[in-house]
Amino acid sequence: MTGPDGQADGGKGKLFWRGDETGAMPAGGYANWMATAFQHGGKWDAAKVCCVSLFSYGIPQFSTSLGSGDADEHVAGYLVEFSDD
Questions:
Q1: How far apart are CA 24 and CA 29, in angstroms?
Q2: pLDDT in tens, 16-64
């Protein structure tokens, strides 16, 4: 919402991924998605998720999250970027 990344692309924020599991990151970006990040059907269907979380099971990996605090997600935390502005 704030800072240089939040102001990128006319205030939409800095793009870090485009598409679903067949998508791609922009040049120079980083992406390491968990194999289960893009589920189709069920509780964590791709249409139901709201945000991205960072997991570390030996290596840092991105996954999708419901953002509801559901205990089944076992989310240890979220990355939040903000500025002093």
A1: 9
A2: 888 888 899 999 888 888 888 888 998 888 888 888 777 766 777 888 8
Q: Name the 3-class secondary structure at 2.
A: coil
Q: Are 73 and 43 in contact (CB under 8 A)?
A: no
Residue 47 neighbours by CB under 8 Å, 6+ apart:
none
- One-letter amino acid of 33: W
Phi first, then psi: what are they for 37, rounded to 5°? -65, -35
**What does the DSSP 8-state code read for residue 72?**
G
CA atoms within 13 A on the CB side of 21: 12
Helix (H) or strand (E) holding 11: helix 3-11
Read off the pTM: 0.61
Q: For the purposes of burial, counting CB atoms within 10 Å of the CB of 22, is it exposed (0-12), middle (13-18) or buried (19 or more)?
A: exposed
